[in-house]
Amino acid sequence: MKTRKNTFHLFSLLLLVSMVLAACAPAATEAPAPATEAPAADPMADLVAAAKAEGTLTTIALPHDWCNYGEVIETFKAKYGLEVNELNPDAGSGDEIEAIKANKDNPGPQAPDVIDVGFAFGPSSKAEGLIQPYKVSTWDSIPDDAKDAEGYWYGDYYGVLSFLVNTDVQPDVPQDWADLLDPKYNGQIALSGDPRTSNQAIQSVFASALANGGSLDDAQAGLDFFAQLNAAGNLVPLIANTGLVATGEVAVRITWDYNALSAIDTFEGNPTAEVVVPASGRFAGVYVQAISAYAPHPNAAKLWMEFLYSDEGQNLWLKGYCHPIREGDMRERGVIPADLLAKLPDVSGAVFPTVAQLDAAKLLITENWDAAVGADIQAAPAP
Amino acid sequence: MAQSSLSLPRVKEPSSLKNWLGVTPFFLFAILFIALPSIYLVQGSFLNGEGQFTLQNYVDLFTTPLIVEAYKLSIQISAATAIGGGIFGFLLAYSITVGGLPRRLRSALITFSGVASNFAGVPLAFAFIATLGRRGFLTLMLKDNFNIDLYQSGFDLYTFWGLTAIYMFFQFPLMVLVMVPALDGLKREWREAAENLGATYSQYWTRIAFPILLPSILGSMILLFGNAFGAYATAYALTGGRLGIVTIQIGAQIRGDVLHNPGLGYAMAMGMVIIMAVSLAIYSWLQKVSERWLQ
Amino acid sequence: MNLEKRKFRFWSWAWFVLGAIYFIVPLYATLRHSLRMERDVIGFKAYVRAFEDADFWETFLLSNALAVATIIASVILIVPTAYWIRLRLPQARRITEFITLLPFVIPAIILVFGLIRTYSSPIGIPFTGIEFFQPLTTTKLGTYALITAGYMVLAMPYMYRSVDTGMRTVDIRTLTEAAQSLGAGWFTIVTQVILPNVRSALLSGALLTFAIVVGEVTLASFLGVDAFGPYLFLIGQHRAYEPAALSFVTFLLTWVAMGLIQLSTGGQGQAAGAH
Questions:
Q1: C-alpha pair distances (Å), B143 with each of A250, B150, C27, C39
Q2: What was the pLDDT predicted at C129?
Q3: Which structural domains are found in chain C, ordered by start?
Q4: Confidence of residue A151 (pLDDT cuts 50, 70, 90)
């Protein structure tokens, strides 16, 4: 009897010890899989090894429905066996910069390694010393006007501003910016972010300038347009997201075409919705990648960049309806699947503002939003 | 140890230091995780950008429009829900105690109050968006059946009144839970004595019951005030940080130095702690006062 | 007199019904919304989808694990302390009760503010180079420890009150003396004599702690912990029907927890207040 009891205790102890050992085992050593991407040279293999030693990558502001980041992250995780610590998926570009600043001395899981921010935020974060340079192996195939010559930031994808309309709530789909002023859209239109910090919202205001008598060098017309929209009661002081459009709280959301298209996918027919690229004022926005100067896992960050700028990574973004930045080069080499290309909307005539124009507009809009438009909105007054 | 354990109370051991050792873990925990963070904030609020002592941050609390507006809004919402929640919560508590509703309803309401007072934050915000949002169940029902367009007439869930309506969901129950014992404490004898002396129903209430209950009611309202003032998650889930109440401003400050002055952020936090502390002190005092009658 | 009674009963019913309407309508609206994921069909698709999401299980289980850790750590910290104070150190009662009131004065947002600022730099003796601990926020484990401590602070008032009330109804002194006369040591007394006697009080405090931790958003989102609260918030940003389903489930869960508390204490409910 006693020996039975002892055996039981011994067995449980063994079980417990093995469980503890298993839990404490070092990070998953993935099965030796055939390399899908033959390491071109030793540096790549070294980088992979260094990244694996770090074990984790911390990202920020990467919603899974944005440019198919969900699949991008999963593929990255599976391919290299790294963990990805995803911070605040709904952060705006301004929030990402703040996160780097707030965690300068903190090498813990709250500090982002890599950021994906609006075009204008690239040069400004370089000027503030928040990012570090890195040139991916496919550097040369990135168009020159979409990257920093020294390698601090580099364009990753672009899209065009569009209207996502919940047609169950609002069957009358606006075709252009001017249509938004119609009284039938009262209380139905919203931006996708705070125009004081979110790149998407800032660009929305900038884009409306093009259709309202302004130009790429003068965004004031955009502020005027939104002031009108707000005064008419058409603009809702909410940050619109997919959830709000799905429930119909926001019937018309101004967002990038890729967000709109992937949102419609998630709706699965309930509600019905449409994407409209405005007839005039077609505005293309480029986002840029950068590695934080204070990144706790710099090698994992570099490996992430290599992955994103490989054909595989770029095509995953394409799957999320985003135009990858290396599109031109990939088309020439014929590595883009035709069916993915076919799904993209017609964006002919879309304009690409320069960094200087974006900077000027960003400054104008973020500083004057409250005065010009926000006066009536239930938002925090300007400091 | 001691052989005599008869009716004599045990004499306190002279080695009281050893006794204090027993509560050291608790005090250590309190120091590490309550005192230290608080001290950090307090200390930070008295420092300026260069790390020197200054009172400027506290002065700035009253002069920075953003912060003044934030406090105003927070106090307004907290006061509104404290008063509204206090009144209606009292009426609810009254209905199941003195008001004489069946016992089963009483226990149902008390159990539900326990649940509802914990149902805050994200799920609560979603529940109200589903009810009173632009496409909410109630909004649509009023529009389709009674031709009342809530949003046209100025209501907006994502503003002050909306948040107030939402906060009531945990304020009413909190008031009920605190007032039920107080109302139970109203002795029947008082009521009967008053009637014997010829008092009417309303006279009983205005001259006897209310004055006795007043400390409890006021104290509970103050508790409600503090409860609403400190809430963060519900407001954030509702507006994504657009509603400029103090807790949301502090949240923004934690994520990034939006005030461009860390000391000011700490001062804002301290301002909040002071308000909460004063509320709690008043509540405790009123509790003691009410206990005199209602034990 | 009879007229009066009838009169005020009417008002009692009126207030009660009004209250019931106010509470039930939002819950009904949530349920209704959650059942309509498929066009024109009343079904449970939203619930199926919500529970199919791997992230839901990860975050929910993590929150549960943190809740259990908080409860265990709280019990280990509070039960011996409450016991000791009752038995040997009544002088410490006032200051201890004051400490347990502090979390009311320091709401979660302030607590997390202080915790982050304090523990994201190394802990040591100021102005010297001596460092005892690396910043807790540097490692995942450290962050979990920090958030558990934070949860313990938030739950402390309720835990302490429950345990204290439970001990009040039990004659600590006699039990201790009896146990000691049988030769038991302090550890045995606390674990085998005191703990079982305050079981129902502990259960009530534990369930309340559980409800607080699983629903908690503030600490988790600022400390970057993948808990259930932030997940629910995120889902709300991207989906229409699953958040409604999960909200309703959360409400049911809270009801179950509170119901269990009622069963075990048979007394008044406990309120945890807003987050």
A1: 17, 8, 20, 22
A2: 52
A3: 54-265 (1.10.3720.10)
A4: very high
Q: Supply C72's token pair.
A: 């265990």
Domain B59-291 belongs to what architecture? Answer: Orthogonal Bundle (1.10)
**Residue length, chain A?**
383
Q: Nearest-CA distance from A317 to chain B in Å?
A: 27
Per the structure block, which two tokens stand in for B18?
């050893």
Residue C269 has pLDDT above 90, yes or no: no
Q: How far is CA C162 from CA A237, A351, C174, C194, C205, in A?
A: 44, 66, 21, 14, 6
ipTM metric? 0.84
Residue B30 host element (H or E) = helix B24-30
**A167: which chain B residues are within 8 Å (Cβ-Cβ)?**
none
How distant is the Cα of B286 from the closest Cα of chain C, in angstroms?
16
Using the beta-carbon criterion (under 8 Å), do C92 and B272 form an inter-chain contact? no
Find, in chain B, the residue whose alpha carbon is nearest to that of A239: B240
CA distance B285 to chain C (A): 14
CB C274 within 8 A of CB B231: yes
Q: The pTM is what?
A: 0.82
Of B64, B156, B159, the CB nearest to A383: B64
Neighbours of C141 (CB within 10 A): 9
Q: What is the pLDDT of residue A376?
A: 35
Domain ranges of chain B: 15-45, 59-291
- pLDDT for the residue C68: 95
Q: Which of C41, C53, C120 to mutate to test the interface with A (most CBs of A within 10 A)?
A: C120
